[in-house]
Amino acid sequence: MSAQSIPFVVPVVDISAYVRGGTDAERAATAGAMDRACSSVGFIQILGHGIPDPVIQGLKDGVDAFFGQPLEAKKEYRLPAGVNRGYAPPKSESLSLSAGVESASRMNDFFEAFNIGSQASDFPDLDLSEAEYPANAWPAVDGFRPAIEAYYAEAARVARTLTRIFADALGMPTEHFAPLTDHSLDVMRMNNYALPESTVDLDGDLTGMGEHTDYGIVTVLWADQVPGLQVVGPDGTWHDVAPIDGALLVNLGDIMGRWTNDRWMSTLHRVKPPIINGTIRRRRSVAFFHDGNAEAVVDALPTCVPAGEEPHYAPMTVIENITAKLAGSRNGQLYAGAGSVAARILAATDRAKPPANRRGT
Ligand SMILES: O=C(O)CCC(=O)C(=O)O
Ligand SMILES: [Fe+2]
């Protein structure tokens, strides 16, 4: 069967054997399913994550309360460029630049976002840099902080559980990633895709969030079921993806690609929310990026480099990779080192366009 004729499915993996505890055989089955999912699609629907429904409801309510404020109120929570915290208004980022690809219209991603993450003060015993682990800026919105912190703690737990499954799936000791992620640079980005009616220019190059790969180890994504998220499948074309009931989406970031020497790949994705009767259908998502300790060196795992072969990438620290990617998305500097990510975007884009010389067929 050719790659073109394989139907695109995002595999579903139930991780309860690791969340609630299971037998060795159950955990081995989960790790095997994870390996197949990560080697083929790089996006996974996970069930059995154990996040209580009220925590997810609190997250949705908090996101609605924050983004429901007037733009001017939200802008109070804007932090200086380069600080990955606080409010990011629409059109302040261009994700495709992070991946080393020029977008047709720079800084045209219309999502607005609010970011929180791990702070130096969370680790008083370590001498962490405030620049790398900046302090959060909490908005004065009733109930927002406790609700968002409750979900953040759950997402962090799920991300760490995933790294244990990954270690088993890759033939490494289960706790291999623990010392590399004990003060992980984690960021949680709450995304709101909406534009006031009067600002929607349907002739423009309207992008919810430009094509990109995530930067870190793994992303745990809560999203509502409004369509918009698209993922490049093994056939090189874009496919719509929405979470099934009760599931979180999980996708691998570039660091996992480096650790696994491309046995697993960070998967390209973008967001194009539907436009119905001239208005954008509002869509929300919350991405928890688990990126690893800033100074952790990312070098191919020994189980992922066949005997006699060289690793595909030179060692790099977590912070070096994240800094280069953020310079792309935030400051408009093309990340020339994005390598295979840029090549994959260009290939996917080309395939999606009709051939130039085809007319009227
Ligand atoms: O909105 C989504 O579903 C995806 C968001 C995303 O890709 C990101 O924040 O990196
Ligand atoms: Fe993403």
Automatic annotation (TrEMBL):
InterPro entries: DIOX_N (IPR026992), IPNS-like_FE2OG_OXY (IPR044861), IPNS-like_sf (IPR027443), Iron_ascorbate_oxido_reductase (IPR050231), Oxoglu/Fe-dep_dioxygenase_dom (IPR005123)
Lineage top rank: taxon: Bacteria
One Pfam entry name: DIOX_N
Keyword field: Antibiotic biosynthesis, Iron, Metal-binding, Oxidoreductase
PROSITE patterns, per the entry: FE2OG_OXY
Domain Fe2OG dioxygenase: 184-292
Protein's UniProt keywords contain Zinc-finger: no
Pathway given in the UniProt record: Antibiotic biosynthesis
Family as reported in the entry's similarity comment: Belongs to the iron/ascorbate-dependent oxidoreductase family.
Protein name as it appears in the record: 2-oxoglutarate and iron-dependent oxygenase domain-containing protein
